[in-house]
Write a structure and sequence with these properties.
This protein is α+β, with helices and mostly antiparallel strands. It has one domain (8-168). Helix content is 29%, strand content 35%. Strands 1, 2, 3, 4 and 5 form a 5-stranded mixed sheet that branches.
């Protein structure tokens, strides 16, 4: 399955829903399994006995192409969570717009690279380099971020906790 584009890397493309889900799923899986994205990994470093996991939610901002590569603009939100008894402990986390360069080979999406915007005064200029004008507007106007409760609910389920399990910070 190859992307097509009239305007190269600055062209947003309509996409089949199953391809869209597959791309987002591959990005989410990568973020959850690659520990380098959570800089401090507080729970993993300070409380490894809790066996924390990273849970992510990724929302598509835009989809463009660059030759045979998909450029997937996403809003990624990840949190480090662990079970402690009948409760859940929250560690570090982040929420950031990113560009994932993806290829699909033999029907399987593969992440080639993941780009974050620079911080501080360079944030908006790098967003403008990374995303289309429409993508930048989606990011700067807000509303893209997934509610933390969605991620917590996924973690509670994965840890075998009830839906109303408390979040604790005194451990």
């Amino acid at each position: 399955m190859k992307p097509s584009s009239e305007n190269g890397s600055r062209s947003s493309e309509p996409v089949n829903e199953s391809v869209r889900r597959a791309l987002l799923g591959a990005i989410e899986k990568y973020l959850e399994e690659d520990p380098s994205h959570l800089e401090s990994k507080y729970l993993a470093n300070e409380h490894p006995e809790l066996m924390p996991r990273t849970f992510c939610s990724v929302q598509m901002i835009e989809l463009r192409t660059d030759g045979s590569t998909y450029l997937v603009g996403v809003d990624s939100q990840c949190h480090e969570l662990a079970r402690k008894g009948n409760a859940m402990v929250e560690g570090t986390g982040f929420s950031v717009p990113q560009i994932a360069r993806m290829e699909i080979r033999n029907g399987t999406p593969r992440l080639v690279s993941l780009e974050d915007p620079e911080e501080g005064a360079r944030y908006l200029p790098t967003l403008r380099k990374m995303f289309t004008e429409e993508g930048v507007l989606k990011i700067t106007e807000g509303g893209m971020e997934v509610p933390i409760e969605t991620i917590r609910a996924e973690a509670r389920k994965a840890f075998g906790l009830p839906a109303d399990a408390k979040i604790i910070d005194d451990f």
